[in-house]
Design brief:
By secondary structure, the protein is mainly α. Helices cover 67% and strands 3% of the residues. A three-stranded antiparallel beta sheet has the order 1-2-3, covered by helices on one side.
């Protein structure tokens, strides 16, 4: 039964206040996630000798269903309750991320995962990204509102960023650190901080990237391979580019791709190459357009917003979402050095897909139409 505008139930108020175009785009990406894990995951499971050919597919079905539920549930929250949930999530994720340095499982020289009985592996740093974006936005907004008296709030947000940066550097996860730093820089810039401070932060970030090149061998190797071809081109990138070439304009057809049989991480970091081979350039551009639509639509919704906290939080969430999608697709196309980062909602991964759903739930909640600032403090009223 259709919901009328006169419906004052929680569902009715949610339906007529949420950005349904953004919701539709996100659910379309979730549908692509189902299709692509069905196309790529069985071949990967077979190649690694998994107990079941459909192991990854069954898990991802559950992950994506859970993600859709999380996104819908979180989108019901008021901006105040978004902040509360993000603060709790940030504290929990930060503690668990520090725990990975002590009891985390080491994979390829990095400690990013915790083995949880019955649940499998958990990457808590994934949840740092959306929660940090919201909490940092809240603290920066409070600092701006306090004027010259807000120096303690600025010290708090800088200390929070430093804590997150340290734990990510220790794992190490330079790609995740780059995303978090970009989110923080975007928020500081939008907040209207003195340009000298913005330039100083930008210089600090650039210095950090240069330092990462000299300190971390895997970063140096990937950059050298990308810029100079030293040590030979990456095998995964070579196969990915071959997959895009084989797909052409319309693709070879669903399930007909061959490169996924030899492409490591075909269901995760390089799923975009599988899309290119089996569905072609047209579908690749359509997926790219979906990501661009979510980001641009979100920014346009903020043009009429007056609450600085909402503006900064949504800006951070959109920066994270768009940057993660860009890094994944650009890595597959050899436009940037390779970086293991999932394509939101399309790649396989439990922690990643649930964390992205949490962030998009935050975004949908923050960009809902609100009747008045006084009503924003209620989780169940103030929406139409």
């Amino acid at each position: 039964m259709a919901l009328s505008r006169a419906d004052t139930s929680t569902l009715g108020r949610w339906w007529w206040s949420v950005d349904r175009w953004t919701l539709a785009a996100l659910l379309t990406l979730v549908c692509f996630g189902y299709v692509m894990v069905l196309a790529a995951a069985p071949a990967v499971a077979e190649r690694i000798g998994a107990s079941s050919r459909n192991m990854f597919f069954i898990k991802q079905v559950l992950f994506l269903a859970g993600a859709a539920a999380v996104m819908a549930g979180v989108s019901l929250l008021s901006p105040k309750n978004v902040r509360r949930l993000a603060l709790l999530g940030l504290l929990g994720a930060l503690v668990l991320t520090f725990a990975t340095l002590v009891i985390g499982a080491e994979v390829k020289g990095a400690r990013r995962w915790l083995n949880i009985p019955l649940l499998g592996s958990l990457q808590p740093s994934e949840f740092l990204k959306p929660c940090f974006a919201v909490v940092a936005a809240w603290i920066i907004a409070e600092a701006k509102a306090a004027g010259r008296k807000g120096w303690m709030a600025w010290a708090a947000v800088l200390g929070l960023y430093a804590a997150v940066a340290v734990v990510l550097q220790r794992q190490p996860d330079i790609g995740m650190l780059l995303v978090v730093s970009s989110v923080f820089f975007a928020q500081v810039f939008v907040a209207g901080i003195n340009m000298a401070v913005v330039l100083a932060l930008g210089g600090l970030g650039a210095s950090g990237l240069v330092g990462a090149y000299f300190v971390f061998h895997h970063v140096q190797r990937r950059v050298d391979q990308f810029l100079f071809g030293e040590g030979g081109a990456s095998y995964q990138v070579d196969v990915a580019l071959e997959a895009f070439g084989a797909g052409g304009l319309m693709g070879v057809g669903p399930g007909e791709g061959r490169m996924k049989n030899v492409l490591p991480d075909a269901h995760a970091d390089f799923v975009y190459a599988v899309v290119g081979e089996e569905f072609g350039l047209v579908v690749c551009l359509f997926i790219l357009a979906l990501f661009a639509f979510v980001v641009v639509r979100g920014l346009m919704r903020l043009l009429a917003e007056t609450d600085l906290y909402v503006i900064l939080a949504a800006t951070g969430l959109l920066t994270q979402f768009g940057l993660q999608a860009f890094v994944n697709m650009a890595s597959s196309l050899h436009l940037i050095p390779t970086k293991g980062m999932t394509l939101p909602f399309v790649s396989y991964g439990g922690s990643s897909v649930i964390a992205i759903a949490l962030g998009m739930g935050f975004l949908l909640a923050l960009t809902r139409r609100r009747l008045s600032r006084a009503e924003e403090g209620s989780a169940e009223a103030g929406f139409r």
